[in-house]
Design brief:
Number of strands: 8
Order of helices and strands: EHEHEHEHHEHEHEHEH
Shape: globular
Distance between the termini: 13 Å
Structural class: alpha/beta
Helix content: 25-40%
Largest sheet: 8 strands, parallel, barrel
Radius of gyration: 17 Å
Number of helices: 9
């Protein structure tokens, strides 16, 4: 299976020109990346601009968030069907920054279920805010999975990916990333819980690592950590760093 490399631009960049430059750099790098599936998740306002023009077969667009409704009276909302219509094929759901704004597990489940039904591939984000030595944090991950996986349409589970992102390793304030060995433990735990919740498909559920990923640690997470891919934030906004990460993967 190709490694899945997802760039989450968050609320960046500021201008269309910068967004085009980042997209073109990804397009150039994708042409020489035979074992990688690339997904770029820009702010939604840039999606229709970036989708125009030629695109390598291994480069797709994704969205960072969506409403839990297909349409209706939801001011400011963007439905999964709208995102798909303007070129998005993947959707991030349950990112820690959305959860920090008050998004609970029930809303995450509703968004994931609707997005799958409307034809998007879902990247479900899970992870703890802090890690304790007794392993109590595993209950947080288990609860996040249990709240979502059983509610998803079984026929569409092949379009689901889980991204493990320890919250303490995300953002400019993070002092460290997880270790490859630490991530591998979480990947095996996630698959074990998933297999209990959704059966055999859970044993092969792709699990990405996200949390202060850069060109210095990417190789270790893919080899020693056995990650099925990576969710990259800050480093994906630097053309130099992002291109190097693609080459390494």
């Amino acid at each position: 299976m190709k490694k899945l490399l997802v760039a989450n631009w968050k609320m960046n960049p500021i201008t269309v020109l910068e967004a085009r430059q980042l997209w073109l750099a990804s397009r150039r790098a994708a042409k020489g990346a035979r074992n990688v599936q690339l997904v770029i998740c820009p702010p939604a306002v840039f999606l229709q601009i970036l989708v125009s023009g030629e695109r390598p077969a291994n480069l797709w667009l994704g969205a960072q968030d969506a409403a839990a409704a297909a349409s209706g009276a939801e001011t400011g909302g963007i439905s999964p069907s709208m995102l798909r219509d303007v070129g998005a094929r993947y959707l991030l759901v349950g990112h820690s920054e959305r959860r920090a704004l008050g998004e609970d597990d029930a809303l995450v489940a509703a968004k994931a279920r609707l997005a799958l039904r409307l034809g998007l591939r879902v990247i479900l984000c899970v992870g703890e805010t802090k890690r304790d030595e007794r392993g109590e944090y595993l209950k947080v991950i288990q609860a996040q999975l249990a709240a979502v996986l059983p509610k998803l349409p079984r026929a569409m589970l092949g379009h689901l990916v889980v991204a493990y992102e320890p919250v303490w390793a995300i953002g400019a304030q993070a002092t460290e990333s997880d270790t490859p060995a630490g991530f591998l433990e979480q990947k095996l735990f996630i698959r074990r819980v998933a297999s209990q919740l959704i059966g055999r498909v859970g044993r092969h559920l792709p699990v990405l690592y996200g949390g202060s990923v850069d060109e210095l640690n990417v190789a270790d997470f893919l080899t020693a950590g056995e990650a099925d891919g990576l969710l990259v934030g800050r480093a994906s906004l630097s053309i130099k760093s992002w291109t190097k990460i693609i080459q390494l993967v």
